[in-house]
Amino acid sequence: MQSEKKQIIMHYEKSILWLERLSDVTDKQWRLPIQQGKWTVAEVIGHLSPWDEFVLHERIPFLSTQEQMPKGPNVEQMNDKAASISRLQSMEQTLQALLKNRRLLLEAIVHLTDELWQQRLQIGRSELTLYSYFSGLVEHDRHHFSQVQNVIGEMEWK
Fold it and tell me: Which residues of 56-89 are buried (b: 16+ CB within 10 A; e: fewer)?
C-alpha cells in the first residue's frame, strides 16, 4: 500500500476514534459556539456528515470509470442545511450519523486500488491527484477538530 494512501487511512481511523470520544462532552459543551457569532460544536460536527456522504456517493464511484464526476453541491446550502439539522438533533443522533458515514467512507478508501492513487482526477476545472483531493478533506477535518478542541478543551486532536 502506498504511503499516501496509508496517511489518509490513518487520518480517517484516528478521526473516528476522536469523534467517538465526543459523546463524552456535555450537552452544554455540544451547544457552545466555536467563537462568538459562529456555529456551535454541534453544527461544526454535523456539517461533516453530508460531505462524507457526498464523497462516498458522488466522487468515489466515479474514480474507476471514464465518466465525468458530478458537479459538487452548493457549499453554502449544504452546510446551512446540515447545521440546521444539527441544531434540532441530539448529540447522539448527529454523532451516529457522522460515524456511520465516516466508517463507510474509510472502508471505501481502503478498497481504492494503488493505481487510482497515481491517476490525475478532473473535478470541474481542477486537475489533481486522489491524494491531494483527500488531503484537502483531511485539512478541513483538522481545521474543524481544532476549533472544537478549543471550545471543549478536553480532547486533544493531532
Answer: beebbeebeeeeeeeeeeeeeebbeebbebbeee
> Distance between CA atoms of 148 and 157, rounded to whole angstroms?
9
Q: Which residue from 29, 47, 71 is spatially nearest to 140, judged by alpha carbons?
A: 47
**CB of 157 closer than 8 Å to CB of 146:** yes
C-alpha cell at 64: 474507476
Tell me the whole-structure pTM to 2 decimals.
Answer: 0.91
Question: DSSP states of 87-101 as a string?
Answer: HHS-HHHHHHHHHHH
- 157 lies in a domain? no
CATH number at residue 112: 1.20.120.450
pLDDT in tens, 95-107: 999 999 999 999 9
